[in-house]
TrEMBL record:
<dbReference type="InterPro" id="IPR026961">
    <property type="entry name" value="PGG_dom"/>
</dbReference>
<feature type="region of interest" description="Disordered">
    <location>
        <begin position="389"/>
        <end position="410"/>
    </location>
</feature>
<feature type="transmembrane region" description="Helical">
    <location>
        <begin position="827"/>
        <end position="852"/>
    </location>
</feature>
<keyword id="KW-0040">ANK repeat</keyword>
<feature type="domain" description="PGG">
    <location>
        <begin position="785"/>
        <end position="890"/>
    </location>
</feature>
<feature type="transmembrane region" description="Helical">
    <location>
        <begin position="785"/>
        <end position="807"/>
    </location>
</feature>
<dbReference type="Pfam" id="PF12796">
    <property type="entry name" value="Ank_2"/>
</dbReference>
<feature type="compositionally biased region" description="Polar residues">
    <location>
        <begin position="389"/>
        <end position="398"/>
    </location>
</feature>
<keyword id="KW-0472">Membrane</keyword>
<feature type="repeat" description="ANK">
    <location>
        <begin position="212"/>
        <end position="244"/>
    </location>
</feature>
<keyword id="KW-0812">Transmembrane</keyword>
<keyword id="KW-0677">Repeat</keyword>
<dbReference type="InterPro" id="IPR002110">
    <property type="entry name" value="Ankyrin_rpt"/>
</dbReference>
<feature type="repeat" description="ANK">
    <location>
        <begin position="315"/>
        <end position="348"/>
    </location>
</feature>
<dbReference type="Pfam" id="PF13962">
    <property type="entry name" value="PGG"/>
</dbReference>
<dbReference type="InterPro" id="IPR036770">
    <property type="entry name" value="Ankyrin_rpt-contain_sf"/>
</dbReference>
<keyword id="KW-1133">Transmembrane helix</keyword>
């Protein structure tokens, strides 16, 4: 086309219709000229919003060329008008295009893929959007370069009327950016009307994933859109059982964001919704890791999820382990409030929750790792999940990848939704009515494989369970109740297991009785997918009476171990349930293993129960020699944990256990004394080994154990090790500057006085080595000492200087003695002045010596520290004296008792300070008596 005349461009820009008509009268073809970007005069007028000028242009040129002209952005005049928000002008251009049947001009998409309908909806011109759909419904099929359909944009902008109209177009597009669809948009905007309409017309969209594998249902759970989730579940309850291709369930998504309301709403529609992710972490574990305390409190109050309290994740940790490990006191408190919590559960490292508290060194690292885990969990859950169980049982497609997601094993008969509602509410009348109308309805199952009896057991509706089993009993069958009592859900649970795990003791007892009446031994002994049977759950939840009933009904329950190798006996002993433990020990082949290679005797040691330990030693003495994964026997554990009562029980039953050996076992003094008293000749046995107990404890500098060893009459301190050295010579230089080292040294010197010369030679050698090593650190240590000392010195100098000019009693105003102190003639006041001056002088001296000190000379540094320490003591004593005498001067005339009390306290303060500072040495002097050698403490 020809280049646009500059006069025409000016007229189109300004809206000058007269000038445009004049130009067109001279040259009709001038109207078809274009600017370098390809815009005609009609484009320019549309962009500027000159509606009258556009009418004039179209009146002058009746050809379709101007209507269909496309600029370099791919825009027709209609598109240009809509994109700039010229709704009235766009409506006029639309009518012209329709009159001339210019469908192509109406359907044109710009270089971004947006058509007029996209722009109209995006800019909020709903009337224009409805007009466009009415004129050309095909506009609804187009998607732009970001895969956005007009329907998606309308739902995102909450334009319900436009969305409803577009949904009426059968083949209208519904996709959006990032793999979203219109149902994602309805959930995100919280528009329940659009969500309901989409579910009625295109229900399959609820199972489509976005690029992050996030379905609309998971998005509702993640965003906390409770009402939107309710709309989706009311239309199709099976959506509550969706699991993403990454394995994330709706409860896990809600837990990661802390939406307790979502969890409650989900369980109202799907009472047995799945609660685990692929790593076997439950929604409770995830909530604890993400720090959502309110969510934890919320779900622990629900019947369906209370049993998660002591459940282990894939890493072998309970929620309590995670809360303690990550130092979350509020979370720990919330978990401990639950009545069924078992604080003795061991993790994969063999530790209860109380032993996983991080120390100060790794606390920061633990918190950082937790934050990273929270971020990763939130990222995964915020991306959503693919549905795997649609209501029609078909395989779904991932909308972003096109890969099919595999549904879980289908069930033969789905539970009726009315029956499900009756079960949750415990409505027996409704259940009976349905059972009479539809035979076999009671055998239906949810997608999780739960029958109506399972769900009633989870909720604790005992009356309902009795009525269900009564109905099935009345039916003509050889074992009428067996199908319900023996039914196993996706978690491997029978109704009995579900009742016990949920903590409904009375109901579980009733179900147990029915199983026994029906001779359903297999149903009673069933283990869930984690290997727990009813007895495991009963003991773990603290239901001792129920546990005893289970053992009486089916002793075979005692033989089972779960996937963590825990037997019912092990759990009972860990929880200190003596009666249950006794009952289990009476069964000859009952299992006794535990987590981390422990056995029941390890558990008895941990719980400190000598009664159970004695019973185990009487029935299964071999357990005392079994090692855990750390190669530790119960005997060694009792020593390590200082369980003296249990230790005595073990040794009384079999004294040879005292000679069991294990590397790196820490022996406490009390435990060692017990062993030494009960074994016939411990030292001779020890001396048969190349590295005897004396050598080990001397090297570790443990004076209590050294003393215990030396008290034994058979101890020979002259025994040489493989290097030809007696025990004294293996003292480690690493501990040489400690009181323990010196105490051990003095004890060994007392035990072998004949070796005094060698001992002193050793002391000199160690002292020289320590002195040499100290030279390397003396500068740093002295600088630290100096900074602290000079700070205190400056503070003392400051307030003693101030005290000199704010004298006690004030100044005289008499003409003869104006400016003099009122108390000047009193001895106490004179003592105040002397002590205050002395305190200021000594502290100033320390402060300035710190400045002029030479840091390179080792001997000078030692002299400096000694000298300044003495000066600081002088300043300290003088300061307290000044304080006491100053107050005495003021108080003595009227409150003599108070003045004397303050003086006594001030005098005693330096004495108490010295006593407390040197107390460890004084205690050692008292403890050792004549054995004490003050010259040996020079290194301390």
């Amino acid at each position: 086309m020809a280049t646009m005349d500059r006069r025409l461009l000016k007229a189109a820009t300004s809206g000058d219709a007269a000038s445009l008509k004049q130009l067109a009268s001279h040259d009709p073809g001038v109207l078809l000229g274009t600017t370098p970007p390809g815009n005609t005069c009609l484009h320019i007028s549309s962009i500027q919003g000159h509606e009258e000028l556009c009418e004039s242009i179209l009146a002058l040129d009746q050809s379709p060329a101007l209507h269909s002209a496309v600029n370099k952005d791919g825009e027709t005049p209609l598109l240009a008008a809509v994109a700039r928000g010229r709704a009235s002008l766009a409506s006029a251009l639309l009518r012209r295009c329709r009159e001339r049947q210019l469908c192509e001009a109406i359907l044109r998409q710009d270089r971004h893929g947006c058509n007029a309908l996209h722009h109209a909806v995006r800019r909020g011109h709903t009337k224009l959007a409805l007009e466009l759909v009415e004129v050309e419904p095909v506009l609804s099929r187009a998607v732009n370069g970001r895969s956005e359909s007009p329907l998606f944009i309308a739902a995102m902008r909450n334009f319900t009327e436009v969305a409803d109209r577009l949904l009426e177009v059968p083949d209208s597009a519904h996709s959006g950016a990032f793999g979203f669809n219109v149902l994602h948009a309805a959930v995100r905007s919280g528009n329940l009307a659009i969500a309901k309409k989409v579910m009625e017309t295109r229900p399959w969209l609820a199972t489509e994933e976005n690029e992050n594998r996030h379905t609309p249902v998971h998005l509702a759970a993640s965003d906390g859109e409770i009402n939107a989730l309710a709309v989706l579940l009311e239309h199709d309850p099976s959506l509550g059982y969706l699991t993403s291709t990454d394995g994330d369930t709706l409860l896990c998504v809600a837990a990661s964001q802390g939406h307790g309301g979502v969890a409650r709403g989900l369980l109202e529609h799907c009472p047995d919704a799945p609660y685990c992710d692929p790593s076997s972490s439950t929604c409770l574990h995830i909530a604890v890791l993400c720090g959502h305390t309110e969510f934890v409190r919320s779900i622990l109050g629900l019947q369906q999820l209370g049993h998660l309290i002591s459940m282990l994740n894939g890493s072998g940790e309970t929620a309590l382990h995670l809360a303690v490990r990550n130092c979350k006191p509020d979370m720990v408190a919330a978990l401990q409030l639950h009545e069924d919590i078992d604080v003795t559960v061991l993790n994969s490292a063999g530790d209860p929750a109380s032993r996983v508290l991080p120390d100060a060194a790794n606390h920061t690292e633990a918190l950082i790792s937790t934050t990273a885990h929270q971020t990763a969990t939130a990222a995964v859950n915020s991306t959503g999940a693919a549905i795997t169980t649609p209501s029609n049982g078909a395989t779904m497609m991932n909308s972003s990848s096109g890969a099919p997601t595999t549904p879980p094993p289908s069930v033969s008969l789905a539970i009726h939704q009315r029956l499900l509602g009756a079960v949750v509410c415990g409505n027996s009348a409704e259940m009976k009515h349905m059972a009479l109308q539809t035979p076999g309805v009671l055998l239906g199952t949810t997608p999780q494989g739960n029958t109506c009896l399972h769900i009633a057991c989870i909720h604790g509706h005992e009356r309902f369970c009795r009525d269900v089993l009564a109905l099935t009993t009345n039916q003509q069958s050889l074992a009428p109740a067996a199908p319900l009592l023996g039914a196993v859900n996706a978690d491997g649970e029978t109704p009995l297991l579900a009742a016990v795990a949920s903590g409904h003791v009375s109901l579980a007892s009733f179900i147990l009785g029915r199983c026994r009446d029906e001779r359903l031994s297999e149903a009673i002994q069933t283990q869930d997918k984690r290997g727990f049977n009813a007895l495991h759950h009963a003991i773990r939840s603290g239901h001792r009476k129920l546990a005893l009933q289970l053992i009486d009904a089916e002793p075979g329950l005692s033989k089972a171990v779960n996937k963590y190798d825990e037997s019912p006996m092990f759990i009972a002993v860990m929880r200190n349930y003596a009666e249950v433990s006794e009952k289990l020990l009476e069964i000859p082949d009952s299992a006794h293993g535990g987590a981390y290679g422990y056995n029941a005797l390890h558990a008895a040691v941990r719980s400190g129960n000598p009664v159970v330990a004695k019973r185990i030693m009487e029935t299964r003495p071999g357990l005392a020699r079994e090692e855990d994964e750390h190669k530790t026997t119960p005997m060694h554990m009792s020593v390590h944990w200082d369980k003296i009562d249990v230790l005595r029980v073990l040794l009384e039953h079999d004294w040879s256990l005292g000679y069991l050996r294990v590397e790196d076992t820490l022996v406490l003094p009390e435990s060692f004394s017990s062993i030494a008293q009960m074994l016939p000749t411990p030292m001779q046995m020890a001396q048969r080994h190349a590295f005897t107990k004396p050598f080990r404890v001397v090297r570790e500098c443990n004076p209590k154990i050294v003393k215990a060893l030396l008290q034994h009459p058979d101890t020979d301190v002259t025994v040489l090790n493989d290097s030809g050295n007696p025990a004294t010579w293996v003292l480690s230089t690493d501990h040489a500057k400690t009181l323990n080292w010196n105490e051990v040294f003095m004890l060994m010197l007392k035990a072998d006085p004949e070796a005094a010369n060698d001992t002193y030679n050793l002391h000199k050698q160690i002292k020289d080595r320590v002195t040499s090593e100290s030279r390397k650190d003396i500068k740093t240590l002295t600088q630290t000492y100096t900074s602290n000392t000079s700070l205190v010195a400056i503070l003392i100098a400051t307030f003693t200087f101030a005290a000199a000019f704010t004298l006690p009693g004030g100044y005289s105003n008499d003409a003869a003695s104006e400016g003099l102190s009122i108390m000047a003639r009193k001895i106490a006041f004179q003592a105040f002045l002397i002590s205050d001056s002395l305190a200021m002088f000594s502290s100033l001296a320390v402060a300035f010596i710190s400045i002029i000190a030479r840091w390179e000379d080792f001997e000078f540094l030692l002299h400096y520290r000694s000298f300044t320490k003495k000066l600081m003591w002088v300043g300290y004593i003088a300061t307290t004296t000044a304080f006491a005498t100053g107050l005495y001067t003021v108080l003595a005339p009227r409150l003599l008792w108070l003045a004397i009390t303050i003086c006594l306290m001030s005098v005693l303060l330096p004495v108490l300070t010295k006593l407390l500072g040197d107390w460890p040495v004084l205690k050692l002097r008292i403890h050792l008596g004549k054995t004490f050698k003050s010259e040996l403490l020079d290194m301390v």
